[in-house]
Design brief:
about 0% strand; mainly alpha; single chain; 6 helices; about 85% helix; rod-shaped; 2 domains
């Protein structure tokens, strides 16, 4: 009987020990799983924030460029006033061009001061494909604005020189109206080009913002060099 009691006690003790070990192991594994999920969520949220900031930066870039053509308006009025005052087409054209070039420089300085081209910094190293889309968008946006600026310069020059066919003395508003028409036309041509430049980037950034944690991590793994560890 004594032997039976001792064996029974030993078996119960072993079971309790085993149960404790199992519970401890399960608790440890659960903690590891929660920690892994937390790190994955933090990483995914960081990518989402970076994607949103990247898109916001490029949208801001487009807004500044589009507003450039609004800022042109006072310069067109000044050109009209100059022509009426001086009755000199070449002088008026030169003055307008100087003002347009100066405004373009201020717009470029504004873009630089807001560091919009650095908006991608938070996504650096995430996926080379994303970087390619970002660079394509910025390149197209820059080219579209530069081309629009040159078209505006050419169009306004023609508007001023075409006044040669108008009976003198030149009166107020005639030149100004023509300049505003040209500015509006150039601005309307720029907007769809800017939208086209942003389209692919916007789609990819929104896809990142809306993606699940697991999908964001998997995209990183597929886009990185072999040997990088999953967070």
């Amino acid at each position: 009987m004594l032997d039976f009691v001792l064996v029974r006690q030993v078996k119960v003790g072993d079971l309790l020990t085993a149960a404790t070990v199992i519970v401890g192991t399960l608790t440890f594994l659960y903690a590891l799983l929660k920690d892994r999920q937390l790190r994955r969520r933090e990483y995914a949220d960081r990518i989402r924030r970076s994607a949103a900031e990247t898109l916001s930066g490029l949208e801001r870039w487009r807004e500044i460029c589009a507003h450039h053509f609004h800022d042109v308006q006072p310069l067109l009025t000044d050109a009209d006033v100059t022509l009426v005052k001086e009755q000199d087409l070449i002088s008026t054209r030169d003055s307008l061009w100087r003002n347009l070039v100066a405004l373009e420089a201020r717009t470029s300085e504004r873009l630089l001061s807001e560091k919009l081209e650095g908006a991608y910094a938070g996504l650096y190293g995430y996926d080379p494909a994303v970087l390619g889309v970002y660079r394509s968008a910025t390149t197209q946006m820059r080219k579209a604005f530069e081309a629009a600026h040159l078209r505006l310069m050419d169009a306004t020059q023609m508007d001023v020189l075409n006044m040669d066919a108008v009976k003198t003395p030149y009166t107020s508003a005639h030149l100004g109206n023509e300049l505003r028409k040209s500015n509006h036309r150039v601005a309307q041509e720029f907007l769809p080009l800017a939208e086209k430049a942003l389209g692919p980037l916007r789609s990819q950034m929104l896809a990142l913002v809306e993606a699940s944690d697991r999908d964001i991590v998997r995209k990183r793994i597929s886009g990185m060099k072999r040997g990088m560890q999953q967070p």
